[in-house]
């Protein structure tokens, strides 16, 4: 393990010189789209110029022929512009870009500088244009994990309700396990190229919420529109997770709206499937099952701690 910093070219160059790596996976970034509006310069430095620093270190160390580089590119490059989808209604490797956040703009620099170094210096440098990928390890402020954590807490009686921003947004959510395997496959390919990794299915945030509650046997109905939309419990089928029928569990909070939103993303992974033989093992349902099972277990530990706390309080009274 080495201490690294994408804003420090000397540090990166020294680490790469010491390690003489066969492969570099640049997954380093400030990756939260909403936060990038608050820290645009930092994001440009880390996500954009940080990519250049790695490429340039490999080049000046004379490792162009030894070190293969994977750049974590993103579906945020497309910005969800409907007119830029292909004939089949998907974004693919030839769809034009139109980023809608400082994060997307910084990542577009990372994309092009990777492609440029590949062409200019004949380096094995590739972009994986990954659509959203989730798992139980997803950061707690990204929408999927925020939902699975909140739903688990609400089902266990640890929390009353929760708040989200744009429920209409649609994302192509895949499982991180499948996507990370594909990152590795990209660097084992015969030629350096850019690849779209996606499931080809898109789902609204609202439907993701319903699916997460369904995992604990709770059905919902949504009422109201825009900032007034709310979700209420309509049925509970599991003995373990019983809530009052009609209970309000979700409201919209405009704090979570973004200055510019990416409304809909859906990717076409045909190239990765046909050329590299990538076969994803998960769909959204199995991914959600994984995330909910993990968060329910995690939150049950909170219940145990809470009960132990109550017991101590009772004894001290
Ligand atoms: O938002 C909406 C939000 O923050 C998804 C990153 O890994 O994937 C990720 O970017 C959608 C957006 O991910 C809340 O407005 C509603 O439309 O989970 P997210 P993202 O912005 O799609 C791409 C591929 C990356 O490259 C990024 O690094 O959900 N949404 N309510 C909300 N989002 C959040 N975070 N929190 C809410 O309360």
Write structural notes for this entry.
By secondary structure, the protein is of the alpha/beta class. The chain has a domain at 9-139 and 173-201 and 262-283: 3-Layer(aba) Sandwich (Rossmann fold), CATH 3.40.50.720. The protein contains 9 helices and 12 strands. The strands form 4 sheets. It has a 4-stranded parallel β-sheet, sandwiched between helices. A 4-stranded mixed β-sheet has the order 5-12-11-10. The chain has a two-stranded parallel ribbon with strand order 4-7. Helix 1 (9-19) runs parallel beside helix 3, helix 3 packs parallel to helix 4 and helix 5 (143-155) packs across helix 9 (284-316). The protein is globular, with a radius of gyration of 22 Å. The chain starts with 8 loop residues before the first helix and ends with a helix. The model has no long low-confidence stretch (mean pLDDT 97). Ligand F7E binds at residues 31, 33-34, 74-76, 131-132, 141-144, 146, 164-166, 169, 171, 205, 256, 258, 261-262.
């Amino acid at each position: 393990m080495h201490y690294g910093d994408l804003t420090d070219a000397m540090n990166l160059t020294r680490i790469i010189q010491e390690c003489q790596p066969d492969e570099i996976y640049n997954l380093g970034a400030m990756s939260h789209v909403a936060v990038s509006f608050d820290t645009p310069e930092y994001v440009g430095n880390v996500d954009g110029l940080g990519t250049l620093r790695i490429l340039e270190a490999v080049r000046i160390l004379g490792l162009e022929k030894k070190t293969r580089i994977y750049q974590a590119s993103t579906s945020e490059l497309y910005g969800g512009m409907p007119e830029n989808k292909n004939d089949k209604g998907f974004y693919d490797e030839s769809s034009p870009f139109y980023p809608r956040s400082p994060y997307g703009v910084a990542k577009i620099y990372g994309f092009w500088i990777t492609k440029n170094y590949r062409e200019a210096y004949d380096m094995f440098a590739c972009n994986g244009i990954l659509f959203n990928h989730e798992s139980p390890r997803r950061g707690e402020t990204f929408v999927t994990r925020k939902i699975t954590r909140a739903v688990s807490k609400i089902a266990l009686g640890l929390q009353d309700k929760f708040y989200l921003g744009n429920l209409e947004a649609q994302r192509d959510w895949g499982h991180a396990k499948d996507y990370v395997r594909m990152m590795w496959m990209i660097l084992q390919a015969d030629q350096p190229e850019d690849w779209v990794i996606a499931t080809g299915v898109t789902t609204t945030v609202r439907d993701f919420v319903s699916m997460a509650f369904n995992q604990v046997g709770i059905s919902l109905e949504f009422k109201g529109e825009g900032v007034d939309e709310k979700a209420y419990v309509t049925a509970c089928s599991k003995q373990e997770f019983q809530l009052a029928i009609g209970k309000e569990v979700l409201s919209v909070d405009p704090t979570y709206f973004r200055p510019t939103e990416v409304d809909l993303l859906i990717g076409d992974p045909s190239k990765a499937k046909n050329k590299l033989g990538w076969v994803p093992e998960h769909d959204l349902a199995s991914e959600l099952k994984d995330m909910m099972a993990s968060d329910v277990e995690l939150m049950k530990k909170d219940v145990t701690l809470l009960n132990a706390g109550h017991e101590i309080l009772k004894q001290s009274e």
